[in-house]
Amino acid sequence: MPASFRTPRTTGGRRALAAVAALPLLAVVLTSCGYGSAADDKDDKAKVAAGAKKIEGLDEVKIGYFPNLTHATALVGDQEGLFQKELGATKAKYTQFNAGPSEIEALNSKSIDIGWIGPSPAINGYTKSQGKNLRIIGGSASGGVKLVVNPDKIKSLDDVKGKKIATPQLGNTQDVAFLNWIKEKGWKVDAESGKGDVSVVRTDNKITPDAYRSGSIDGAWVPEPTASKLVAEGGKAILDEADLWPDKKFVITNIIVSQDFLKEHPKVVEAVLRGSVKTNQWIKDNPEKAKASANAALKEASGKALPAEVIDPAWKSIQTTDDPLAATLDSEARHAVKAGLLDKPNLKGIYDLKPLNKVLKAEGRPAVDDAGLGVK
After folding, report:
1. Between 266-285 and 72-79, two packed helices, what is the crossing angle to 10 degrees?
2. What is the 3-state secondary structure (H, E, C) of 118-179?
3. pLDDT by residue (tens digit) across 243-293?
4. I need a labelling partner for 231 at 20 to 30 A (CA). Which of 4, 350, 355, 363 fits?
5. Which domains does the chain have, with CATH numbers?
6. DSSP symbol at 7
7. pTM summary value
């Protein structure tokens, strides 16, 4: 479940959002530190090459990500040992999360050094620390969000009015996008309660298919693979969020790093970014192998692989990218402010793309832009 913005304008809103935001602090499987499910037992598949040396003398780098298709770069890079290949004898230690707040907490406590995470928790983590704890250092994925509805109840986008539509969490990335779409339609909804011309029902992605099946919701604005699971249940995708963005691209996953770790171990950060860039290229060059790799990683995490009718369409709707699509993150923050779920944030300095651009230059690739939000 993606994390939510939690800087509302009113005291009552703070209480409401805090209550909701407390829910995702449970990770997939709690470890002794309480942050996520350790993946150390499967790290041995990424063997350290003979004669490899530690980068900057560092024994290990602690990497966090979600076992979601929107984190495909991390899933495949871990599964195929592509990060470890770039890290030499510095061991990649992985921890999996299913909630943004717990990953940000782990980053702040130095339980992880680098993480794959959605835009909402990245913005929230940066603003709550007054710009002191993290930097976004690269992109990872775009797209993969759809409005799926019961075709017996909703024939067109205008029919959404008066219906019950689920989003993953109050103030999360998809919730903000749906509230912004509702506003642009000229309809009115109270952002915090979800009541109005459309009933916005905040529902954990894990139970959204059950809610759809039972008829307690009429549709959902959700990321993959939940969207494809709903289609497999008989739902119909009537809107792809990508169609609402310039060039059909918008950030769904970023790479973040602890500012202290970036300062102390810049070469290790470059190695992880190099692994990310090469993993994204491998995914593009080997789409079927990459899909199978991601599904194998999901099976290891959950005990069950996604069926073909779910993973095939879900995989096609997500694009891996090195570009963090910074302008779209800024737009997402402005949408949250407009919805009343976020005080106007100061995002100057949230990006440091110098290490990524150094890696891209070495690969003969063009530099990416921070939309004026980079560290000086």
Report:
1. 100
2. CHHHHHHHHHHCCCCCEEEEEEEEEECEEEEECCCCCCCHHHHCCCEEEECCCCEHHHHHHH
3. 999 999 999 999 999 999 999 999 999 999 999 999 999 999 999 999 999
4. 4
5. 11-144+249-362 (3.40.190.10), 148-248 (3.40.190.10)
6. B
7. 0.85
